[in-house]
Amino acid sequence: MPFKKLHSEIKEKLAELEISTPTLFQTKSIPVIKSGANVFCAAPLGSGKSTSLILTTMHKLKCEEVGTAPRAVVLVANNERAAELNDAFFKFTRHTSLRVYACDDKQHIDLLKSEIFEGVDILILTPKTMNKLLLLEGVNTTQLKIFSIDDASFLADNASYTALMAITQSIHKCQYVIYSEKIDPLLKRFESYFMQYAKKIVIK
After folding, report:
1. Number of domains the chain contains
2. Where is the Helicase ATP-binding domain (predicted)?
3. What pLDDT digit, counting tens, does each position of 107-141 carry?
4. Staple partner for 195: which of 3, 142, 159, 190, CB 3.0–4.6 Å?
């Protein structure tokens, strides 16, 4: 049971939320993500991908705040998804010291920089905003442990794809996890760049 080997604070929260049985996708994906490998995760809508992303991110960061630089980044398609994922994270992190921050594209970049500078553990944002922050030295990636891409279908957009390629070139060492409904040729291309030796979890 993959839930049994998660951090004790996560197990307490799962019990509180009455989540006791992992989905098939969670059973297969959580141990592989926990191993530290780069992973392509493909499964249909409703398979539990978002919860897997949240649980494995919290486990990786040991459910506690450390320093000021982000240790986890989650790339999303847009502001609406950033807000949704932020709310989903909050259900699990509110009794931990983990600091989750979702960037709002509509806010001025200087405001985002100052908010991140205050200290963030998990940063949720679009590729465009992440790239802009990197260009302006508004986010420090030296402490990054895990970099997740939520529902990667949005990378079919050329601007998002280009921004992602620029972002990954500025990150030296990190685990990458890509979530999608299927592993299409666009995603397979990443194996030549930042997804070397990636494992694949596919549920149909």
Report:
1. 1
2. 30-201
3. 999 999 999 999 999 999 999 999 999 999 999 99
4. 190
